[in-house]
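TICKET: design request
STATUS: open
ATTACHED STRUCTURE:
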């Protein structure tokens, strides 16, 4: 959390205000609040609504309105200095934007673009989260067994996420019998000879995503081809390109690597990430531009295999945030990519 980041974010908000001839912006969405306040925890129930809103002015004044029972905690632990915090009765709804105040819901696309290029403080926080999450997942999966249930493994993963000070956003575990399900919510079934695990964790507002596969002697003939698709996805993610064009290249890559012309339609392919798990989830209509210094989590999938890590796209290369040197890897497209961890 640095003042430099806050100043840069305020400058981006001022550009939005100027474009709309407005002097104040009302922030009410969790992603807007977490972004502006350097990763503040903006909710109490996980996935619940924010417990405060904020008005940011061109002149730099920031006024936060929150429930009275949250005021002291927010002021001392979450919001930082130079913020006016006003408490209101806990039983009253947070106020709507006043007349003449621009709402974040009215400029959602502009705010998405504003938070796309990560700032120095954000990159430092994101890198620490990605590394710690990857190591935590490795620690749990190294001790997995074929007899273990999907739910038991999921419980261990949730515990590991919380232990590193993060919140579980996605916990998917698909054992051998459920490898054909794109989003395998955990069940009481055993892992069997192969399992795919996807984890999303939020800390300081930012969400890191990764997928790992463990096996006990059961391989997948097209696993290498899927890694090639992911490499093509990352290579196609170039600053200035529209996201729909990147997705078009990903779709072609499935066919080019022998996985079928329509294989990309069986599961979404991911996209930009950060203060939302997918910001946005990329579709054939996505016209947002790739921005230098933006985080992505592409997740190509075929039944039985999936590839996913959180990366930052820079002009001079790619930084893999969710890397663990203890996990077996192979170089694909000049980037170290995880292999299946065979525990047999």
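STATUS: resolved
RESOLUTION: sequence designed for all positions
ATTACHED SEQUENCE:
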């Amino acid at each position: 959390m640095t003042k430099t980041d806050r100043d840069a974010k305020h400058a981006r908000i001022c550009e939005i205000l100027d474009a709309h001839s407005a002097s104040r912006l009302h922030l009410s969405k969790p992603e807007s609040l977490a972004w502006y306040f350097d990763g503040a925890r903006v909710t109490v129930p996980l996935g619940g609504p924010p417990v405060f809103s904020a008005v940011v002015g061109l002149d730099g004044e920031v006024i936060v309105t929150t429930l009275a029972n949250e005021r002291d905690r927010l002021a001392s632990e979450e919001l930082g200095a130079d913020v006016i915090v006003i408490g209101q009765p806990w039983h009253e709804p947070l106020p709507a934007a006043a007349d003449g105040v621009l709402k974040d819901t009215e400029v959602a696309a502009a705010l998405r673009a504003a938070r796309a290029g990560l700032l120095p403080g954000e990159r430092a926080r994101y890198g620490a989260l990605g590394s710690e999450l990857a190591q935590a997942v490795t620690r749990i999966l190294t001790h997995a067994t074929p007899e273990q249930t999907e739910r038991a493994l999921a419980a261990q993963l949730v515990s590991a996420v919380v232990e590193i000070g993060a919140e579980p956003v996605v916990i998917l575990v698909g054992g051998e019998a459920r490898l054909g399900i794109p989003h395998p919510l955990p069940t009481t079934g055993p892992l069997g000879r192969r399992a795919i695990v996807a984890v999303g964790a939020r800390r300081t507002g930012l969400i890191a995503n990764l997928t790992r596969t463990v096996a006990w002697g059961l391989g997948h003939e097209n696993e290498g081809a899927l890694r090639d698709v992911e490499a093509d996805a990352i290579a196609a993610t170039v600053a200035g390109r529209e996201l729909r064009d990147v997705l078009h290249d990903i779709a072609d890559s499935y066919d080019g690597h022998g996985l079928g012309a329509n294989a990309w339609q069986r599961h979404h392919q991911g996209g930009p990430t950060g203060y939302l798990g997918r910001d946005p989830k990329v579709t054939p209509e996505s016209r947002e531009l790739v921005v230098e210094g933006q985080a992505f989590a592409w997740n190509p999938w075929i039944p039985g295999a999936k590839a996913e890590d959180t990366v930052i796209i820079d002009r001079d290369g790619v930084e893999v945030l969710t890397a663990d040197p203890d996990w077996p890897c192979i170089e694909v497209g000049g980037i170290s990519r995880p292999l299946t961890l065979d525990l047999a």
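CLOSING REMARK: The CA atoms of residues 156 and 195 lie 15 Å apart. The two ends are 44 Å apart (CA to CA).
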